[in-house]
Amino acid sequence: MTTAPASPDDDPMPVPPEAPDINACCGSGCDPCIFDAHDMAMDAYRQALRAWQARQAKPAHPPETDGS
Questions:
Q1: Are 38 and 19 in contact (CB under 8 A)?
Q2: Which of 10, 25, 29, 43 would bridge with 5, disulfide CB 3.0–4.6 Å?
Q3: Distance CA 34, CA 19 (A)
Q4: How far apart are CA 37 and CA 68, in angstroms?
């Protein structure tokens, strides 16, 4: 079961993965290449960011009603 964080401090914004240096690729056709791995990590980051943004858009507590 997942619960909403108590405060924004408990739910930090996701941080994008660091891009590999252009010279870090060995050029031998590795599968996956470091750039492929970075692309997959960026996909995961974007998904986490969308989920985080959706959580931030929701009110922390439901609006109170007067019961009438």
A1: yes
A2: 10
A3: 9
A4: 56
Tokens of 13: 């914004």
As a whole number of angstroms, the distance between CA 2 and CA 18 comes to 28
34-48: pLDDT as tens digits: 999 999 999 999 999
E strands, the chain, in order: none
Q: Amino acid identity of 15?
A: V
The 8 Å CB, 24+ separation contacts for 46-53 are: 48/14, 49/13, 49/14, 52/11, 52/13, 52/14
Better-predicted residue by pLDDT, 6 or 32: 32
Half-sphere exposure of 16 (CA within 13 A, CB side): 8
